[in-house]
Design a protein that fits this description.
By secondary structure, this protein is α/β, with parallel strands linked by helices. The chain contains 14 helices and 11 strands. It has a 5-stranded parallel β-sheet, sandwiched between helices. Strands 7-6-9-10 form a 4-stranded antiparallel β-sheet. A two-stranded antiparallel sheet has the order 8-11. α1 packs across α12, α4 packs antiparallel against α6 and α4 packs antiparallel against α7. The longest helix is centred in the N-terminal third of the chain and has 47 residues. It starts with 19 loop residues before the first helix and ends with a strand.
């Protein structure tokens, strides 16, 4: 039996091939197997996305151990694609620096900034009330000065700052050789690998990616899910990585005549999952048309609830203010509290629409203005009505 080749008859496109009967069979197979897939029951191949591997470097040490144990426990079923391996190797060192060493350096820097901020906050408060409090509330003024003196003294305790520098420095030193002695790299090197696509297949997919991207970009926001395909939400210089991964998996499914579980933590761009976390059912139909099996795209945190994939070193996303409406006429609705509740894994994906809090200015195209902070950086995003945006932007 000759190997299946990615071409115009075998790729993410089922136009003319999908019938009502094929759709029924595909969705029936997907429905019957989905709960088992989530629980990783049975013997279906489990394919890991790059973000599962790279996410390791921002996890706590306890969660790192759990992830490595999971990979070891399911080693006989776990595969990675060639694209995933290359993305992991290409980004590993920069992620180690960005998600591990850089945040450690910031621990001391941010504390020194806190010391300055505390002093400045007291000075600002006293400056605004220097005529009122000392004259009409002299006792309060004395208490305030005593509190300031006590707080500033404690926040500038050199011993505590030395402890921060010492303990964080120890962690940094102990992990200095992580790029050379890396448990995740060791684990990845032992995983079974799916056959890579050849150069002709990749060139074909790069062209088709652009062909699929046009109708996706032109679709209205509430209909984009109909045109979604792997990689459609990427804004990288080379966004075709997910598209290649999907076809490596589909080709593998054809070869082994099995459905597959694709484990990923990528859920903010709307290409592996819809933005409401529902599965793209046309992905199951697509793979079934070509392989008579389906791909189960599963969110890792749902499947492995005992493992926290949270990047504990990431600076938190803070929504300072968010207003929806027409800034020119000041017809605005404050939606700050609503947006705070929609932050998931330190990211906010939001659509600027009247669904947020009604229509503050009927008949006028509105916008959503978000003022937010990440660490010491304060930024602003303006999203036009009908547009979906994620902050921080990738």
């Amino acid at each position: 039996m000759s190997e299946q080749i990615i071409n115009s008859e075998f790729y993410f496109n089922h136009k003319g091939k999908l019938t009502a009967d094929i759709s029924r069979r595909a969705l029936e197979q997907f429905s019957k197997g989905f709960e088992s897939a989530i629980k990783l029951e049975g013997n279906l191949p489990i394919i890991l996305d790059t973000n599962i591997l790279l996410g390791y470097y921002g996890m706590s040490q306890v969660e790192k151990s759990k992830l490595l144990k999971f990979i070891e426990s399911y080693a006989n079923r776990i595969f990675i694609t060639k694209q995933v391996e290359q993305e992991f190797l290409r980004n590993r060192l920069s992620v180690i620096n960005k998600d591990f060493f850089e945040p450690l350096r910031d621990v001391t820097t941010d504390y020194k900034t806190l010391q300055k901020d505390i002093s400045n906050i007291f000075k600002s408060y006293k400056e605004k009330r220097k005529k009122l409090l000392p004259q009409d509330y002299p006792v309060l003024w004395e208490q305030l000065e005593a509190i300031e003196k006590d707080v500033v003294k404690k926040i500038n305790d050199k011993e505590f700052l030395n402890s921060i520098e010492s303990q964080v420095g120890k962690t940094t030193t102990e992990n200095m050789n992580i790029s050379l002695s890396d448990e995740m790299l060791n684990k990845v090197s032992t995983l079974k690998q799916i056959d890579p696509l050849n150069s002709n297949e990749i060139e074909f997919l790069e062209v088709e990616f652009q062909n699929l991207l046009t109708p996706y970009n032109e679709a209205k926001e509430n209909a984009k899910w109909r045109f979604a395909f792997p990689g459609c939400g990427d804004k990288k210089d080379d966004p075709t990585g997910d598209f290649i991964i999907f076809h490596e998996i589909m080709k593998f499914m054809k070869k082994v005549s099995k459905s597959c579980i694709f484990l990923t933590n990528d859920f903010t761009k709307g290409d592996w999952f819809q933005l409401d976390m529902k599965p793209h059912l046309h992905y199951a139909e697509n793979t079934f048309v070509h392989t008579e099996n389906v791909i189960f795209i599963v969110h890792a945190e749902r499947t492995l609830p005992n493992i926290s994939f949270e990047n504990i070193h990431t600076k938190p996303l803070e929504i300072i203010s968010a207003k929806y409406g027409t800034p020119q006429t000041d017809k605005l609705t404050d939606v700050t509290e609503l947006l705070v509740t929609k932050i998931v894994n330190n990211r906010l994906t939001i659509t600027a629409s009247n669904d947020l809090a009604g229509d503050p200015d009927p008949g006028i195209v509105k916008s959503l203005t978000i003022l937010y902070r990440i660490g010491q950086r304060q930024m602003q995003a303006t999203i036009m009505e009908g547009v979906t945006h994620t902050i921080p932007d990738e």
